[in-house]
Amino acid sequence: MTVRPPNINKLGRDALEIIRKYKEKKRKKMTDFITSQIRTWVPIAVGAIISWLATLGLQIDSNTQAAIVIALTGLIQAAYYTVVRLLEKKFPKLGILLGTPKTPSY
Asked: So where are the chain's domains?
């Protein structure tokens, strides 16, 4: 009975294919993570900027102004995100208003 050595070329190709698939999957996860971060932080920035601009003309003390900015930021951010997401369902290109039209897949 003769023992045949394993086909090294096939083992090498299989190993390289496994590594390639792993790297591709890892890269996709990172891309989705970055996309989700962009689509999270853009509405926060929009809310903060709009609420700060809204308080510029008010003659109030700085503590009250800070409280108003904080409250408005949350409200504006939630409203902005909701409106853009609803519009994005009908007009996918409007996803750019969230920083990127690409949606992450989880």
From this structure: 8-98
Q: What's the pLDDT at 1? A: 61
d(CA 11, CA 22): 16
Tokens of 63: 């503590």
Dihedral, CA of residue 16, residue 21, residue 26 and residue 30, to nearest 10: 120
Q: Do the Cβ atoms of 41 and 99 come closer than 8 Å?
A: yes
CB of 68 within 8 A of CB of 55? yes
List, in sequence order, the alpha helices (H) in the chain: 8-55, 62-90
CA gap 19, 53 in Å, rounded:
51
pLDDT digits (tens, 9 = 90+) for 41-98: 999 999 999 988 888 888 888 898 888 888 999 999 999 999 999 999 999 999 999 9
Residues 6+ apart with CB under 8 A from 99: 38, 39, 41, 42
pTM flag (> 0.85): no
